[in-house]
Design brief:
Layout (H helix, E strand, L loop, with lengths): L15 H7 L6 E6 L7 H15 L3 E5 L7 H5 L6 H6 L10 E3 L2 E4 L6 H4 L5 H12 L5 E5 L6 H9 L2 E6 L3 H18 L3 E9 L2 H19 L2 E9 L5 H10 L4 H20 L3 H4 L4 H8 L5
Parallel strand pairs: 1-5, 1-6, 2-4, 2-5, 6-7, 7-8
Antiparallel strand pairs: 3-4
Helix pairs in contact: 6-7, 7-8
């Protein structure tokens, strides 16, 4: 069972480098799906990536880190539950709190739980406890992080091996995502992030966004954005978009998202053999060849 008693703040890891030393020899690759602004498709991306990885044969844990406004169960059409609170209060064990669908395991958050709301919990530390206890049981752990730059979101992003920053052409999304990347860099020493641009209307728009964000991050933060690709704007309500993305494997959205996930897995698995040869080089040297609008 998880313990709700936490170490003193000074005893906890405060930088990405220290987090990584704690993760040495652990099996799962932890990926946080994150955004500076809500409403950009973050949860849809997290769910879709988890499903694709699981269908490919990897054992995957999808963990909804928005612990009292959980949307993963909604996206997957599952009943809302109170399992997260029951887990941390020792009413259930970890296995009993999971929804299992083949290789995909889901630990969802709660939805408007008064019990959880009334607890003064350091959720980031609780989630890291869960990760440390179960990282050896999975190939990939996908964290659907709350949007914004809260302490919990920053800590979980810093702990993760990889960060998928989801951004749309909306100016506030771009500004807020840069702020997230900046704070992770300045406060946690995070130098690498993966960028996925959603709701793209055209190839030129995609290229402009890649250029602007990559050059800004490289110039002012001296760090790197790995470009995953773009997802086309679908002129449809969110529920219809989710149906196309999550459930229709003959859709262009599905096929191109498979390409995005394949590109990422090849990158990180190749990095184990040759870190430099598989990672996307700095934007300024390879724009004409490697930065592509994928849908």
């Amino acid at each position: 069972m998880l313990s709700l008693k936490k170490p003193n703040p000074g005893d906890w890891l405060v930088s990405q480098n220290k987090y990584q030393s704690k993760k040495t020899s652990l099996k799962a690759k932890t990926i946080s799906v994150t955004a500076g602004k809500g409403g950009v498709g973050k949860t849809s991306v997290a769910v879709k990536m988890a499903k694709i990885l699981a269908n490919t044969g990897y054992k995957v844990l999808l963990l909804d880190c928005d612990t009292n406004l959980s949307n993963t169960v909604v996206k997957l059409g599952l009943p809302i539950n109170n399992y997260f609170y029951e887990l941390i209060s020792a009413q259930r064990d970890f296995e009993d709190c999971l929804h299992k669908d083949g290789n995909l395991h889901l630990l969802s958050g709660c939805n408007g739980s008064i019990d959880l709301f009334n607890k003064n919990l350091e959720v980031d530390r609780i989630i890291i406890d869960i990760l440390v206890n179960h990282e050896r049981d999975y190939d990939y752990i996908i964290l659907d992080c709350p949007a914004g730059i809260t302490k919990e979101t920053l800590t979980l992003n810093a702990y993760s091996d990889y960060r998928f920053v989801i951004v749309t052409p909306d100016k506030s999304s771009v500004t807020d995502s840069y702020s997230l990347i900046k704070i992770l860099n300045k406060e946690f020493g995070v130098n690498d992030n993966h960028l996925l641009i959603n709701k793209i209307s055209s190839e030129p728009q995609y290229q402009r966004m890649v250029k602007t964000l990559s050059e800004t991050v490289e110039t002012f933060l001296k760090c790197r954005l790995h470009i995953l690709g773009g997802i086309e704007n679908v002129d449809a309500p969110v529920d219809q978009f989710d149906t196309l993305l999550l459930n229709q494997e003959n859709s262009s959205l599905h096929k191109n998202f498979v390409k995005i996930v394949k590109k990422f897995t090849e990158e990180i698995e190749g990095a184990a053999l040759s870190a430099e040869s598989k990672f996307v080089p700095k934007f300024t040297t390879r724009l004409g060849h490697d930065v592509r609008f994928t849908v």
